[in-house]
Every structure is written in C-alpha cells, then in structure tokens.
Amino acid sequence: xxxxxxxxxxxxxxxxxxxxxxxxxxxxxxxxxxxxxxxxxxxxxxxxxxxxxxxxxxxxxxxxxxxxxxxxxxxxxxxxxxxxxxxxxxxxxxxxxxxxxxxxxxxxxxxxxxxxxxxxxxxxxxxxxxxxxxxxxxxxxxxxxxxxxxxxxxxxxxxxxxxxxxxxxxxxxxxxxxxxxxxxxxxxxxxxxxxxxxxxxxxxxxxxxxxxxxxxxxxxxxxxxxxxxxxxxxxxxxxxxxxxxxxxxxxxxxxx
Amino acid sequence: xxxxxxxxxxxxxxxxxxxxxxxxxxxxxxxxxxxxxxxxxxxxxxxxxxxxxxxxxxxxxxxxxxxxxxxxxxxxxxxxxxxxxxxxxxxxxxxxxxxxxxxxxxxxxxxxxxxxxxxx
Lengths: 256, 120
Fold this sequence. Notes:
The complex is a heterodimer.
Chain A: H1 2-7, E1 21-27, H2 34-44, E2 49-54, H3 61-67, E3 71-74, H4 81-94, E4 99-102, H5 114-122, E5 128-132, H6 144-161, E6 173-176, H7 177-185, H8 192-202, E7 207-211, H9 226-243
Parallel strand pairs in A: 1-2, 1-4, 2-3, 5-7
Antiparallel strand pairs in A: 4-6, 5-6
Helix pairs in contact in A: 4-7, 6-8, 6-9, 8-9
Chain B: H1 2-21, H2 27-45, H3 47-57, H4 65-119
Helix pairs in contact in B: 1-2, 2-4
C-alpha cells in the first residue's frame, strides 16, 4: 500500500508552470543524503532545475549530485554556508530564474513542505517566504540552549523589523526575482539567515513566515557546536547592530 | 592619564565601528579589536580594577603601566590571529591558482578540439 502511494506522482501546482524555477541545494559532505534530497524535489515538481552548491566536500557529494542530473557548482574550498548559498543565488540570478527555493542538502528541509513556502510567493503576497519551525504548532525538537538562542534572536529581530518573526535561523525559503536579486548582490557571511532577515526588511521586500515541519538530521551533524554558538551569537548581534547604521539601498522600483 | 587613555580607547572603538559600517572590516575580524577597545576603556576608567590587577602582577610603583601591558598583550593576540588568517588566505590562494590553471588548460583543449571538428 505504501509503495502504491509513493508511485502516484503528486499533482503539480499548475501556477508553477509559468515560472522559471530553481532549487538551490547547499551541501557539505552529504553523500548519504544528497541523492534523496534531489529525488524528493523532483518528486514534488519535476520542473525545478536543481543546482547543488558543494561547499568543498571531501566525499562524493558532487559526483552523486551530477549523476542525478543536478547542476553542480563545486567550490574550490569551504566558504561557509553564507558564501555557498550566495553562489546559488548568483547562479539563479545570472541564468534568469524568477523563482528560487533553498533546500538544504542535509535532508533537514522536507521538499513535501515546498508547497507551503511557495504559496505566498505564487500569490504575490511575499517576495520571500520562510518556513518556520515555530510559527505554528508543528513540533521541532532541538537542544534547549539552541532553542533559547533561536528564540532570543527571533525576539530581537522582531523588534527591529516591527513584524513578528519566529524563526530567524531557518534556511528553508522561497524567493521571487526581487529576492534572488537582493541575495545575489549581497548576502551575509557565516551565519547568514538572521542578518539576511533584517536586510530584507531594510530593502523593503515583503517577508512572510509559514509554519513547516522540519526533519531531524539524517546523516552528518550540525556545523554548530556549543562554544561556536556563543561566538556566532555575539557576531550576529554585532552585525545586526552595525547593520542598523548602514544606509538601506533604495528599492529599484516601487513595489506597491 | 586615565582620561587620555579613556578618550583613546573610545576613539579606537569609534574607528572600528565606522570600519565595520562601511564594510571595510568584517565582523569576524572586528571582534578581537572590539574586545581590546572595551577592556582598555574599562581599565582606564575604572582605577580600582587597574590597581587590583597591578597588585596581582606585582607592579607597585606605577599602576597605569598595567594598561600598557594589557594593551600589548591584546595587540600580540590580534597579530597572532592575523598570522593564522594570512596562512589560511595563502593556502586558499594556491588552490585558486591551481584550479584556474586546470580550467584554462581544459578550456584551451576544448576550443582546439572544437575548431578542428568544425574545419574537418
């Protein structure tokens, strides 16, 4: 029965057909996961081009992704998640895509949930839609210290942008051309999502959070350890604080 | 003395802030500098702390000498940090150059192959 269900292809949203769309998949040493992630994105919608950004993996991540027919950008050395993701946005921008989703290569983001984060962008309600682990009732288990950190950042960012944001560390996002353009031009470094959220608002793009379920990591481990998270916390807070004193770029066109 | 040192530390902090704001200094490399500025500022304004540290270090004659000691210690730390950063950069530079050479060679051979294919 389960096999039968899997064999039936999902109905693809017809509205998607009019968009040139791409899935950006950053990956670091994910040879165990990457094939599954690519297959699941295709299963959701075969019309997505897939670009895997290999951030200097030492394993067969790039090889496996290529064999599955994904475009693979292989960075010559590890740039960190910010640099890797921005490479994907540059690719999307230069190849003229007008809809991009980011799905991490570690299998944490469930492509089944793409439907949820695509909706606000397809409805033209948002330039960027972010999948939040905390916006709805969907449970997400994580270490206590990490949860506290995420909550604290969410609280600070919400105050700054004057809109309730619950999950500033989520990389599960869908973007239209405006969002792609912004991130291709400027994207923060090694712990980027928090700063990026503030940046989005400064550039007057519309960001909407959507509740999604995320999965536990299948293989590999999180790049964030306890001591590092303190360092990141300080760094991110500094970056946000200084960022407030930067001049926001004037939007290229009026978006009403 | 403490007022001059305090003003100097504030100036250092202001310069660091402006450098980050204008994107000439990345947050990652600014943290150690900021720590330096904050510690120097605290010690120059808070004489009690300075005297306590002077007591630990056995500096009895002239406590503000501790300011110089702490300052040099931080500068040493920043320099060491830079050495590691430069080492990493030069490693990455090597990798980039090698990668570029390989790509150039590949592109050249591909072009030659293509012109041969079209001329025959």
